[in-house]
Amino acid sequence: MTRQTAFRRFAEATARYAGRPAAFLLAVLLIVGWAATGPIFHFNDTWQLVINTGTTIITFLMVFLIQSTQNRDTAALQIKLDELICSSKAHNALLNLENLDDQQLERIRRHYARLAESARDDLSRFEEVEEAAREQARR
User: Fold this and answer.
1) Measured CA distances, 76 to 12, 73, 83 (Å)
2) CA 109 – CA 103 distance, rounded (Å)
3) What is the pLDDT along the chain (139 residues), one digit of tens a residue?
4) 20 to 30 A Cα–Cα from 81, which one of 58, 94, 120, 130?
5) CA-closest candidate to residue 12, choices 66, 57, 78
């Protein structure tokens, strides 16, 4: 097993377990336990430093693990979307959009926004015609 595969498995497992209710409960219990020891340590600086350091380290490491998992999930989602585009009547130019620069993406987004606006206008006109037909039928 390569290091990359080992890291991927570790990141996925960590993200999976960190998202469970038991992990949240464990975190709450650790905080409650830490808070309960406050009077024993007279709420001193070292007592506060323990929780600050611990939570900072855990947060720092979790950012990388979660980002790794999210990158993999996003890549898989993009592949699935590309397959749906290929297998439908959608334009194949929409494949692999995530690799375009921001200006190209904005130009395509504006194009689809105009198409959506036009479709809504058509729908409004259709509803107006239907309403007029209903009104005429009532007469």
Assistant:
1) 14, 5, 11
2) 10
3) 788 888 888 888 988 898 899 999 999 999 999 999 999 999 999 999 999 999 999 999 999 988 988 988 888 898 888 888 888 888 888 888 888 888 998 998 898 889 889 888 888 887 887 888 888 888 7
4) 120
5) 66
Q: How many CA atoms lie within 13 A of 89 on its CB side?
A: 0
Number of residues assigned to the chain: 139
Instruction: Dump the DSSP string for 74-103.
Output: HHHHHHHHHHHHHTSSS-GGGTTGGGS-HH
Model's pTM, two decimal places? 0.59
| Structure tokens that stand for 40 in this block | 């024993």
- How far is residue 18's CA from residue 32's CA, in Å, rounded to a whole number? 18
Rg, the chain, Cα only: 27
